[in-house]
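Dear Dr. K.,

Following up on our conversation at the group meeting, I've run the structure prediction for MADF domain-containing protein from Cyphomyrmex costatus. I'm pasting the input sequence below exactly as I used it, so you can double-check it against your construct before we proceed with anything downstream. Let me know if the numbering doesn't match what you have in your notebook.
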Amino acid sequence: SADMVQESKEANDDIIENNEQSCPSVEKRTRNKEDKIWIDYDELLINAVMKRPCLWNHTIPMKRRSPLIVKETWLEVKKEIDDKFEVEEIKKRWRNLCDSYKKARNKVTEYIPSGSEAPVNKKKKSFRYYDQMEFLNDLTTSRP
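The predicted structure tokens came back this morning:
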């Protein structure tokens, strides 16, 4: 009976996979389109934000990361990467990158026993910009 359950689960998985292939979700299509637009800019964006800790380092005194300063800093990022983007688009993309980084990082830390010298698992490569975004470690990334 356990085998039967396993077989029907596998058959079910096949159906789900086939459905995904034949009918991609609208959201996924939009996301891929967005990814294509950003492919040339993601690293520029990461570097631009990294150079401006007021956008991600919540340990900086409030007076150095006031709403006005943060607003002006996002405008600098916009100029640095490409003026064609709206600040809101840039902030949204940054949030997406942070979310992807956090997910990838959680996967990595799941596999490393705490306090061990275990090598960092290959899993980390599941996110293209993992290494570039390691500056966010040990900080709760603030939402723009």
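Two things stood out to me. Residues 31-110+128-136 form one domain. Confidence is low (pLDDT under 50) at residues 15-22.

Best regards,
J.T.
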